[in-house]
Amino acid sequence: MLEVPEQAIIELLVNALIHRDYFTSASIRLPIFADRIEIICPTT
Question: CA 5 to CA 15: how far, in whole Å?
Answer without folding.
Answer: 16
